[in-house]
């Protein structure tokens, strides 16, 4: 598992840099329009709806490690092209959106293959721990990446350098993943096909709770996580009048809270994973309520505390949800199920970002 976790931390560091570069590029190419940022998030979201059936089929049809490495190769090549165009100052908004779309296809492939691959690791009792370690590695990598991006920007680097760093992390991950386990696909008597509406209804009927998990994931990310992603930088930069460095430290506080919670989840076993998931959903929303009290820069320390506290509950819902699906869904179907879950999470989060941007632009 050590090579796998190493690759995850590396790519998360790079993804954090790309997250900053994405916002900068969207603002620059759209003339500092919040609507332009919202459309960029929509473009980033589209693969989760358009490519979901195909990516789920790919994950269940081919070895999961090969799919993860293939997605790393795809994302690395896409970002090399993007970085070169940025360096040449020859990037148009249409090409930027097209490359963003292709990167999201790779993101969807990787996340679906990763969660299905974990199920094939020997030792059923280790799933919760592995998922928690993955979440903890993501949190650590995200915090490190935000700090690295901030440092590079302070030294005069631009979006091209940040994108190039992300491309390098994918290339390194491609090599490192070659040292991980490569289990054969789970045995199945059925032909691997894309599931239609009838098959999904039958699957949800066989596994009570699956439909609820998917719907709650969509609602939570559209109404809570999406708006939070857009609103946090606006609160810090526009309402509080603080520099981007303060936003970076807020993201670090969030990452540290998630890291602590992931460590606690890894050290315990839970009999009722759906109960843990539901509690996490509730607390995830409630911990955003005090944010309405934050009015100006004098409240910034309180914002850091709230970000840390809020992040304590995010791994509860994410780790419990993933572990529950790994335990109840046939391994031969998990690529398609996790592909849909990724759409419910990241797809609807992107739609929430777009909706929030439109509201703020109109206001």
Q: What are the low-pLDDT stretches, counting only 5+ consecutive residues below 50?
A: none
Distance between the termini: 49 Å
- Helix and strand pattern: HHHHHHHHHHHHHH
Tell me about the largest β-sheet.
none
* DSSP E strands, number: 0
What structural category do the secondary elements indicate? mainly alpha
What is the general shape? globular
Q: What's the pLDDT, averaged over the residues? A: 85
Helix content: over 70%
Give Rg in angstroms. Answer: 20 Å
Strand content: under 5%
Number of helices: 14
Short description:
The protein has about 375 residues and is mostly helical. It is built from 14 helices and no strands.
Question: What does this protein look like?
Answer:
The protein has 363 residues and is an all-alpha fold. Helix content is 79%, strand content 0%. The longest helix is centred in the middle third of the chain and has 30 residues, at 210-239.
Features of this protein?
14 helices, 363 residues, 0% strand
Task: Please render the helix and strand layout as text.
Layout: H1 2-29, H2 34-50, H3 52-61, H4 64-87, H5 93-119, H6 127-154, H7 159-176, H8 197-206, H9 210-239, H10 244-266, H11 273-286, H12 300-311, H13 314-328, H14 334-362
């Amino acid at each position: 598992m050590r090579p796998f976790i190493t690759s995850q931390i590396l790519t998360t560091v790079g993804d954090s840099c790309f997250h900053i570069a994405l916002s900068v590029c969207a603002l620059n190419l759209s003339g500092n329009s919040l609507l332009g940022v919202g459309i960029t998030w929509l473009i980033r979201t589209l693969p989760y709806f358009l490519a979901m059936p195909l990516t789920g089929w790919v994950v269940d049809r081919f070895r999961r490690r090969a799919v993860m490495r293939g997605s790393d190769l795809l994302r690395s090549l896409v970002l090399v092209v993007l970085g070169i165009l940025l360096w040449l100052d020859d990037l148009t908004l249409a090409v930027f959106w097209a490359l963003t779309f292709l990167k999201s296809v790779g993101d969807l492939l990787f996340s679906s293959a990763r969660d299905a691959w974990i199920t094939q690791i020997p030792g059923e009792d280790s799933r919760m721990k592995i998922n928690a370690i993955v979440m903890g590695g993501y949190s650590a990598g995200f915090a490190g990446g935000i700090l690295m991006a901030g440092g590079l920007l302070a030294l005069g680097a631009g979006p091209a350098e940040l994108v190039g760093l992300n491309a390098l992390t994918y290339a390194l991950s491609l090599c490192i993943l070659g040292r991980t386990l490569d289990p054969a696909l789970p045995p199945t008597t059925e032909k691997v096909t894309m599931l239609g509406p009838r098959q999904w209804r039958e699957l949800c009927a066989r596994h009570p709770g699956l439909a609820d998990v998917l719907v709650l994931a969509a609602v939570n990310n559209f109404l809570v996580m999406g708006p939070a992603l857009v609103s946090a930088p606006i609160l810090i930069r526009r309402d509080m009048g603080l520099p981007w460095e303060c936003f970076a430290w807020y993201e670090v506080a969030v990452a540290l809270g998630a890291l602590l919670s992931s460590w606690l989840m890894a050290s315990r076993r839970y009999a009722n994973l759906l109960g843990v998931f539901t509690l996490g959903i509730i607390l995830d929303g409630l911990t955003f309520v005090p944010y309405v009290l934050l009015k100006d820069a004098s409240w910034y320390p309180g914002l850091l505390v709230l970000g840390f506290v809020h992040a304590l509950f995010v791994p509860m819902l994410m780790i419990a949800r993933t572990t529950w699906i790994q335990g109840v869904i046939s391994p031969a179907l998990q690529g398609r199920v996790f592909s849909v879950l990724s759409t419910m999470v990241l797809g609807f989060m992107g739609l929430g970002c777009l909706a929030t941007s439109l509201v703020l632009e109109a206001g």
